From TrEMBL:
Pfam family, one: LigT_PEase
Top-level taxonomy: Bacteria, Pseudomonadati, Pseudomonadota, Alphaproteobacteria, Hyphomicrobiales
UniProt short sequence motif HXTX 2, positions renumbered to this chain: 120-123
Database matches in PANTHER family: RNA 2',3'-CYCLIC PHOSPHODIESTERASE
Lineage top rank: taxon: Bacteria
Motif (HXTX 1): 37-40
Reactions mediated catalytically: a 3'-end 2',3'-cyclophospho-ribonucleotide-RNA + H2O = a 3'-end 2'-phospho-ribonucleotide-RNA + H(+)
Family (UniProt): Belongs to the 2H phosphoesterase superfamily. ThpR family.
Protein name: RNA 2',3'-cyclic phosphodiesterase
């Protein structure tokens, strides 16, 4: 069974903004744009029955859509940086969704995730990058941010045994629902307003 994890996809506009951060750091292996994502919970290698149970439970999650913004960049590994990431705005709905997925995984017998949830998009993995180069790279890009985007679903992804960074395969899609009171434009044709200029 391939390694599984739950994640949020990055929409095209935000992914294109992230792609502009590529380059300018010796020793960096940049993640392909189509593989950008925000990991919610790493599940790992599980047998087919456990995978089916996970899908069944995740399918019952009933949470509203929400908005996110990507902002700021940083690195993991303070003395010896091993990856570059873009930060994610702290949305309570994101933490609530991640917490529910974590509880489902633990109820199904998976060990708790040992790492504290730090939402981010991995941009590059670092092999032999010098600390000075990393500091210089981050110093010129600290004001990075995207426009807000809507999160309307989360996905179950699989990855083949590799060094990390893709390619990933979407195994299942789990929609989030429209927030209560959200107006619906279904069936109405939206015409651009006429300009008086």
């Amino acid at each position: 069974m391939p390694r599984l994890f739950t994640a949020l996809e990055i929409p095209r506009n935000a992914a294109m903004s992230l792609s502009l951060l590529r380059g300018g750091l010796p020793g960096a292996r940049w993640i392909d744009v189509e593989n950008y994502h925000i990991t919610l919970r790493f599940i790992g290698d599980v047998d087919g029955r456990t995978a089916d149970e996970i899908v069944d439970r995740l399918d019952r999650i009933d949470r509203p859509e929400f908005s996110l913004t990507l902002n700021g960049i940083g690195s993991f590994g303070s003395k010896k940086p091993h990856s570059i990431w873009a930060g994610v705005s702290a949305a309570p709905e994101l933490y609530a969704l991640q917490g529910e997925i974590e509880r489902i995984c633990q109820r199904l017998g998976l060990a708790p995730d040992p790492r504290k949830f730090t939402p981010h998009v991995t941009l590059a993995r670092l092999k032999a990058s010098r600390l000075d180069d990393v500091v210089h790279y981050l110093g010129g890009r600290g004001d990075f941010h995207t426009l807000p985007f809507k999160v309307s679903r989360f996905v179950l992804l699989s990855s083949k045994e590799s060094v990390g960074g893709g390619p990933y395969l979407t195994e299942e899609i789990f929609p989030l629902h429209e927030p209560a009171g959200a107006s619906s434009f279904v069936g109405r044709s939206l015409q651009p307003e006429k300009s008086l200029l």
